[in-house]
Amino acid sequence: MRRELTTSILAVVVFTVLLGLLYPFAVWGIGQVAFPGKADGSQIHMDGRVIGSTLIGQDFSKHPEYFQSRPSATGYSTSATYFANRGPNQASTVAFYRTELARYVARERRYVPGLTAAQVPVDAVTTSASGVDPHISTANALIQAHRIAAVRQLPLDRVHRLIDDHTDGRFAGLLGEPGVNVVELNIALDKEAPAT
């Protein structure tokens, strides 16, 4: 019995050191060498401080000079990511989508005359699975481009070029849909034509 107990304790110690210390340290080290920016969370640095991440959506709703992210169930909180678990027949689902749709149309119709609810891309009114997805569809970005061009006094084709430059393609050329990273696009906008 003593031999089995000693073997068990030794196995726990060896595997704790191997899998609890050495393996995580090796993976961390490889990540730091091979992918230093991504391994640290794809952080955005400005004026010597971290202001966010290109992987996390942010709330730009109070700033019409910026592209707007998808709605977020978490308020873009990085400490609690989840989606709104609404069923298709819930009254709260209908109310949420109607509110988001009315907000979007009211904000964009001034710059896109004749914009109807039927023309609004679905991602403009729905939350993502994580609630903090930084991407919107190209259709959504192209509608918002009219507002950005007007507010920042930029030619529309220049805004379209920025959208093209910040559109991610399909994964491996096959999976998913192209998406525009709103955080990166807004940073590029500030470099191209600083907001006044």
Topology of this structure?
Elements: H1 2-34, H2 36-39, E1 43-46, E2 49-53, H3 91-109, E3 135-137, H4 138-152, H5 156-165, E4 167-168, E5 179-181, H6 182-192
Antiparallel strand pairs: 1-2, 3-5, 4-5
Helix pairs in contact: 4-5
Structurally, the number of domains stands at 2
Integer average pLDDT = 83
Q: What is the number of beta strands?
A: 5
Strand order, largest beta sheet: 3-5-4
Terminal Cα separation, in Å? 77 Å
Number of helices: 6
The main β sheet shows up as: 3 strands, antiparallel
The geometry reads as: elongated
Oligomer: single chain
Please mark out the parts with pLDDT under 50 across 5 or more consecutive residues, or reply none: none
Going by helix content, strand content and strand pairing, the class is mainly alpha
| Rounded Rg | 23 Å
What percent of the residues sit in helical stretches (DSSP H or I)? 40-55%
Structural notes for this entry:
The chain is mainly α and 196 residues long. It folds into two domains: 1-40, no CATH class; 42-192, no CATH class. The protein is 47% helix and 9% strand. It has six helices and five strands, in the order ααββαβααββα. Strands 3-5-4 form a three-stranded antiparallel sheet. It has a two-stranded antiparallel sheet with strand order 1-2.
